[in-house]
Amino acid sequence: MTKKLKILFVSSEVVPYAKTGGLADVAGALPLALNTLGVDVRIALPKYRGITVEANEDSLGGKVPVYFIENSNYYDREYLYSTPEGDYLDNLERFVFFSQEVLKRTKKENFKPDIIHCNDWQTALIPVYLKTIYSNDEFFKNTKIIFTIHNLAYQGLFEQKEWSKIGLPKELCNIDGLEYYGKINLMKGGLIFSDFITTVSPNYIKEIQTEEYGFGMEGILNSRTDVLKGIINGIDYEIWNPDKDSKIPQNYNIKTLDKKTTNKQHLQTETNMSIGRDIPLIGAIGRLTDQKGWDLIAEVIDEICQKDLQMIILGTGEKKYHKLMDKIAAKYPLKTSINLKFDATLAQKIYAASDMFLMPSKFEPCGLGQLISYRYGSVPVARATGGLKDTITDLTEDPVHGTGFLFQEYTSQELLKTIERALESYKNRRIWRNLQKRIIKANYSWQYSAKEYLKLYHNVTKTLQNPVNVR
Ligand code: ADP
Q: Which residues of the chain have pLDDT under 50?
């Protein structure tokens, strides 16, 4: 019998324990899918407030052990990384502690990973520690590091005067190390010291090697093209399932799509919008930031709201967009429902109720909203960037295989035109129903992508010719 591959999956958020965005969805689903493929995978996560597991039940889905890293001073807080006023001031200490403790814990558990799979800046010091201060440690002699970029825009930047908190030699605080324009950049360390780097879609890995999308990291990425790969995210088909979803008023599937409108009517009632099964309902869920295209939405929100449609928005983000949305809610009470909060149950109701799902992102590493909306028969209206471009085919360009509506140029007029195109198609019941059936059939479960990761793990452990050496 071949030896089981051992993977330690490290993430600062994991569904169902803690979530602010897509990273948590991935970290809660990919390890389970790997477990099904026969991998001995374990997860490490900070023990935030609200996580109430007992020592004997700390496993995900009863299958994947979770190492909760405890420190009440650092993690027993209302939010994960920041309050509405800004980032926690001790985020460097919080994630230095997490990274160091993860390595200590895996040793204590005597779990010798073939690969430590790190995710985003919060875990980016792990590769640096492993390849420097742990370089002669027998325990990690055969451990390789994979680093996945879920969003290159958040790099973990800190003042240089904080360097001593990291516990690394001074020499590493230079241009070949973690120094970046006078600051400390944790993500940069992850990109230099990992054995392999992935992103969450094939298109995004190409984009981030350019100045436009590289956020200053394009030089390093260009120097490491032999160890870069984009693997598209999946979603958990058990969690996101309109046929079983207990949070939505009316379950439905591809054969009972007519019932989907019951969810629309429920939501219209619940949110005090006017009731009507034929009014096109556009949903938007996510962070209210420029990345997600909110500057475009802001420019044309009035024009959008004057059309024959309804909009339901769920998200939190920049204050200026909160203010704008409050105004819109007051101006169009029957046509809009504005929900400036994080609410997982309402999210499910919106996916189930909406006819269209809006994602006009400036950049989008993968995007999960479009995949979830497929599952619920809600048609994405999105900008052709990153993972959105990989997963959506424009219906006007390809009426046979189309799965949504895409625009290229990042302008509010293009967004508006694309919404208009979607509304036109919506009027034709036959076209719309065929489109819904097509997107519900699209398969973005983890089955495929977990196998891609497994292949990569095998390649990295067996055939990597030039692992990163200590500098
Ligand atoms: P991000 O860049 O924020 O990670 P993704 O599209 O990859 O964006 O994933 C966003 C995930 O977070 C989806 O599961 C989405 O439904 C969820 N989500 C985002 N904002 C909210 C919110 N305010 N309430 C509930 N769920 C949310």
A: 465-466, 469-471
